[in-house]
Design a protein that fits this description.
Oligomer: single chain
Distance between the termini: 36 Å
Order of helices and strands: HEHEHEEHEHHHEE
CATH class: Alpha Beta
Strand content: 15-25%
Largest sheet: 7 strands, mixed
Radius of gyration: 16 Å
Helix content: 40-55%
CATH architecture: 3-Layer(aba) Sandwich
CATH superfamily: Vaccinia Virus protein VP39
Number of strands: 7
Bound molecules: S-adenosylmethionine
Length: 204
Amino acid sequence: MQEYHYTARIYDPLLSSAVRPIRNRIVSLIKRYKYRSILDVCCGTGEQLKLLKEQGIEGVGVDLSEAMLKVAGRGKHKADCLNQDASQMEYGKETFDLAMTTFALHEKSPETARAIVEEMLRVTAKGGDILIVDYELSEKTSPLYKMLVYIIERIAGGEHYRNFRSYIDAGGLPALLKGTSLTEVKRYYFARHSIVLLLLRKEA
Ligand SMILES: C[S@@+](CC[C@H](N)C(=O)[O-])C[C@H]1O[C@@H](n2cnc3c(N)ncnc32)[C@H](O)[C@@H]1O
């Protein structure tokens, strides 16, 4: 997959500090709920898995971009990421206590995003959790941040931007999760209400 071929190397230097509060919150939630097996879906550069590893917490990731996976495999705390399509993963059903995906669903086509959510549900154990971080733009979002989100996504361009627009126009995460039997456990907002972190539980 050629996606992120040119941006993989600058992805963390550009975004790390802005997303660090979110990544830190994920680390604390994972510590609090003591998940034993963790999957990061569309793990990108593996930054979240590396932060977890720093704290002695192991997890695995999947991504389709060779360039992102290359970055994931570098550094002191190399992330354990495999080249797999998140919409049809090779893991068996109910393999993980926690499946998470951060900043990935908004850039996929509605069909792929839904397939990824369904795959996350399939590989998560009964009573296990699903954690999703993505944009949520509402009347509570600061207009400045809303504009920033549109600018960032516009720069990402092409299909990425078209998918982002469809995601927002269709109603974002609530629409994507409609019909799934997940119960909300926790919800946090970041960046002036432009980003949401949802922790959801699958039926036991
Ligand atoms: C915006 S990045 C997010 C990366 C990371 N989760 C983060 O928080 O920074 C989206 C990632 O989704 C990956 N991706 C796109 N389609 C995919 C698919 N079908 N299966 C697995 N990964 C995919 C891209 O390669 C990219 O690394």
